[in-house]
Amino acid sequence: MKFLQKSLWSLMVFILFLPLFVAHAEGLTNPLGTTDLRLIIGNIIRAILGLTGVLALVMFIYGGILWMVSSGEPTKVKKGMNTLIWAALGLVVIFSAYALTTTLITGIATGSISIST
């Protein structure tokens, strides 16, 4: 098991740093658009947060379907309602995390954090 974990970590580190090494080769263009590791990590975090948003949407749909097909059974109605409530709370967490990481990544990349009102 430890060998598998070490292998996965090594693969993740290799994949993370590969664009930095490949971008300096002659005649090749960088598909990421940047070689700045901070921006690459920021883009990965934004992609992960986007996928969690999709997962929240799926949970909303699942909770709504549970509620609609419950046929009035209190346990099924409660399960569907709880799924919708937790999906809404999950969206609050996702939006908060997105706002925080966007602010931090922008601040790290530019050297200053500006909060516009």
Radius of gyration: 21 Å
Provide a count of the helices.
Answer: 3
Helix content: over 70%
For the sheet with most strands, the description reads: none
Low-confidence stretches: none
CA distance, first residue to last residue: 50 Å
Strand fraction: under 5%
Order of helices and strands: HHH
Structural account:
This protein has 2 domains: 1-34; 36-117. With 117 residues, the chain is mainly α. Helix 2 runs antiparallel to helix 3. The chain contains 3 helices and no strands.
In short:
The protein is mainly α.
Question: Tags for this entry?
Answer:
117 residues, mainly alpha
List the helices and strands and how they pair.
Elements: H1 2-22, H2 37-68, H3 74-110
